[in-house]
Every structure is written in structure tokens, then in C-alpha cells.
């Protein structure tokens, strides 16, 4: 389970995130949306322990990410929007390294898990090639594999579909669905509203550092006071960007 309680972050006089409170239970795919600069990435970085909040708390399965960082991070799989890879390692070496960092000490257990992930993400043929030779989509799939190597109970994803071809995107959607069914709590930030609309049970919209709407699609429609079926017009209305959407419609017209 993911819990944020009055989570806030200031950089000097700038209040990037303001008192965000939300919970994601086990088995839910939760969407976290907002315009550029709204506070999404700052919130995620606090949630995974990369930066300290100015106030408030972030808990993963009851473990405070600041007070109990090792315990919390052992439960966490994190996929950043700009992942770092050791390009002079092979894909196999990289996954074995990550598995060892997470404490999969048994050689047989580690090997079995790594081979499962390489097969699932269609990387087996390339497992002994240096990562520097991988395409962008292959790197994304390798990062996904690394985030799952230790069987995390919480998965936090920033822009999961960047660089993936349609086959890779379909694979990720199926993976997230299966993980949620197994009880993993998934917190997903994306700019692709169609993905959030299809995959997420609930969605939070953040704007200017505050969560301005949170709920299911029917609850977001009620908040926006509109009967629109799609997420895009709801998002534009709630974030005050409706005129931009109409301008786009004028161009298409």
C-alpha cells in the first residue's frame, strides 16, 4: 500500500508540492496526472526517497521512506522517466547485479528470476550483448525487468510507455494488469491520458502543487461538472486548459 500524508516540498520560496494526501491500496493501478511543472516528478521523487519532503510523510506498506529507507525501498520497484543504465554491462550482467543488490543471494534463485524476466521482455537473444548496443525500447524493457527482479509489493512508474513500440506497450499493459491482480500497488504518472483512462481504477490530478481532483472516472466527471466520457476534456477543464483543447479542435476542423 502507498500512503501520502500532507506531503509538501519547498525549494526556497517556491512551493512545488502542497499537502498531498492520498492512498493506493494493494492491487490498484493508480494514475497521477498533471500539466508540466505541476509537481508530479517532485512528488514521485519524495515517494521513492530521492528527496526529503519539507513536511508530511510517505509510506510504502507502512514503512516511512525517510525514517525506514532500507525497509521501504526493499518493497519498491521504481521506473524513472530517464533511467540510468551501466552501458558497459550486458543485459544479463545488469539484471544479476540488480538482483544481488536486492538480496537475491541464492545463485539458482537469482538465475531463475533473471531468465524469467529476460524471456518475458523479449531480451533473451540480447542478454549477452552490451547495453550500449540496445535500442531505446530495449533499454526501457530492461529497466522494467530490473524494477521487478525482487518481486516488489509497490511499483512506481514515471512515463512507462516512453520509447516503447506498440508491441512493447501492449506487453507493459498486460504486465501491469497481472501485477495488480497479484496484489501489487501501482502508482503511474503519464502524459498519455488514453493510457490512464484505460488502465487506472482511480486518478489524481495535480496542478500547481495541489491535488485538485481524485477519484474514478464518474467521480472526475462530477467534479468537472460535465458528461464527457473521455479523460482528456475532463483533464483540460479541471486544470484550466480548456481553451487550449478548443484551439486544437479548431485546427483539426
List the helices and strands and how they pair.
Elements: E1 2-11, E2 14-24, E3 29-33, H1 40-47, E4 55-60, E5 63-64, H2 69-73, E6 76-79, H3 91-101, H4 107-120, H5 136-148, E7 154-158, H6 166-181, E8 185-189, H7 193-199, E9 202-207, E10 210-215, H8 217-224, H9 231-238, H10 242-252
Parallel strand pairs: 3-8, 3-9, 6-7, 7-8
Antiparallel strand pairs: 1-2, 1-4, 4-5, 9-10
3D structure, described in words:
With 253 residues, the protein is of the alpha/beta class. The protein folds into two domains: 1-75 and 152-220, P-loop containing nucleotide triphosphate hydrolases (Rossmann fold); 85-151, no CATH class. The chain has ten helices and ten strands. It has helices at 40-47, 69-73, 91-101, 107-120, 136-148, 166-181, 193-199, 217-224, 231-238, 242-252, and strands at 2-11, 14-24, 29-33, 55-60, 63-64, 76-79, 154-158, 185-189, 202-207, 210-215. The strands form two sheets. Strands 6-7-8-3-9-10 form a six-stranded mixed sheet, with helices on both faces. A four-stranded antiparallel sheet has the order 2-1-4-5. Strand 1 (2-11) and strand 2 (14-24) form a beta hairpin. Helix 3 packs across helix 4 (107-120), helix 8 (217-224) packs across helix 9 and helix 9 crosses helix 10 (242-252). The model has no long low-confidence stretch (mean pLDDT 90).
Amino acid at each position: 500500500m502507498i500512503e501520502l500524508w500532507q506531503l509538501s516540498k519547498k525549494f526556497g520560496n517556491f512551493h512545488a508540492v502542497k499537502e498531498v494526501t492520498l492512498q493506493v491500496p494493494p492491487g490498484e493501478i493508480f494514475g497521477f496526472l498533471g500539466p508540466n511543472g505541476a509537481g508530479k516528478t517532485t512528488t514521485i521523487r519524495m515517494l521513492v526517497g530521492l528527496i526529503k519532503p519539507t513536511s508530511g510523510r510517505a509510506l510504502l506498506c507502512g514503512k516511512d521512506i525517510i525514517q525506514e529507507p532500507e525497509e521501504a525501498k526493499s518493497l519498491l520497484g521504481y521506473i524513472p522517466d530517464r533511467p540510468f543504465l551501466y552501458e558497459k554491462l550486458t543485459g544479463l550482467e545488469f539484471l544479476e547485479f540488480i538482483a544481488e543488490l536486492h538480496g537475491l543471494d541464492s545463485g539458482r534463485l537469482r538465475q531463475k528470476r533473471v531468465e524469467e524476466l529476460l524471456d518475458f521482455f523479449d531480451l533473451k537473444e540480447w542478454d549477452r550483448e552490451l547495453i550500449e548496443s540496445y535500442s531505446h525500447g530495449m533499454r526501457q524493457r530492461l529497466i522494467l525487468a530490473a524494477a521487478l527482479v525482487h518481486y516488489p509489493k509497490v511499483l512506481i512508474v514515471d512515463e512507462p510507455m516512453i520509447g516503447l513500440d506498440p508491441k512493447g506497450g501492449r506487453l507493459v499493459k498486460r504486465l501491469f494488469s497481472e501485477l495488480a491482480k497479484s496484489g501489487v500497488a501501482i502508482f503511474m504518472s503519464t502524459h498519455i491520458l488514453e493510457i490512464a483512462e484505460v488502465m487506472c481504477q482511480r486518478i489524481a490530478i495535480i496542478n500547481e502543487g495541489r491535488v485538485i481532483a481524485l477519484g474514478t472516472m464518474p467521480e472526475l466527471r462530477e467534479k468537472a461538472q460535465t458528461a464527457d466520457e473521455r479523460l482528456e476534456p475532463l483533464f483540460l477543464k479541471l486544470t484550466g486548459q480548456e481553451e487550449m483543447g478548443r484551439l486544437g479542435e479548431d485546427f483539426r476542423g
